[in-house]
Amino acid sequence: MAALVRWFWIPEWQIAPGRVSRQHLIAFPASNLVVGPDGVELSGPSTRRSHRDLSGTGWAVGALLRPAAVPAFTAAPAELKDTAQPVDLPDLQKWVTEAMTGPADRHRLAVDAFADWLAGVVPAPSPEALLANAMAELIDADPAVVRVEDVAARLHVSTRTVQRLARRYVGLPPLTMIRRRRLQEAAQQLRDDPGTSLAELAAQLGYADQAHLSSDFSTILGLTPSAYRSAVTPES
Fold first, then answer.
1. N or C: which end of the chain has fewer CB within 10 A?
2. CA distance 224 to 214
3. Half-sphere exposure of 7 (CA within 13 A, CB side)
4. Dihedrals φ, ψ of 74, to 5°?
5. Strand (E) or helix (H) holding 174
6. Backbone angles phi, psi at 151, to 5 degrees
7. Helix or strand or coil: residue 89?
8. What is the distance between the alpha carbons of residues 117 and 131, in angstroms, rounded to a whole number?
9. Domains in the chain, please, with CATH?
10. Which tens digits make up the pLDDT trace of 142-195?
11. At CA 228, angle to CA 226 and CA 230, rounded to 5?
């Protein structure tokens, strides 16, 4: 299962009648398979900040798919960029819903049901699919990777191969994946340490200067680093 799913996630909510809770999301540049009470959705890779409005009572069980799992659900992940589409997977929906509506230990049982379904449906990853996993892991984990050429060199393949893997298994250009990871790091640091110097943060993440970081941040996340820092800093 480790070759197919990065992690499972399970939100549950109970919002007072007449109220709406808006959840702002900075999602990973990857696809998610999400089960809810009303069906199953495949959401494609995200390139910008998004939000979801929650109301009433509900739940979802999602799997953040690794690249190797994506071709089992779509041959063109780029067509799902920044969107989601319903998928007809009645057994998955039935198994997970039964677990989530059970009397106890529903989270563990839901994840087990989801994992069992995936194991029975998704073929064993090919060497190319595992290489796509390695590409995504490298981009996510190595802050020294700031160019597509860096990825190619570490994987001992050509830049064209990296681009092809990203297109087929992720649905985004590899440079977009790198930029997204750097911005997630920037956002995390601003949340954890609001006093972080933006100039130092830009240098740490491999940007030429603070202006380039601010430009990327604004373009993809919809607000400047300073505005984001103000928004996530608790009032004293």
1. C
2. 6
3. 3
4. -160, 140
5. helix 174-192
6. -65, -50
7. coil
8. 24
9. 5-121 (no CATH), 127-232 (1.10.10.60)
10. 888 989 999 999 999 999 999 999 999 999 999 999 988 888 888 888 888 888
11. 70
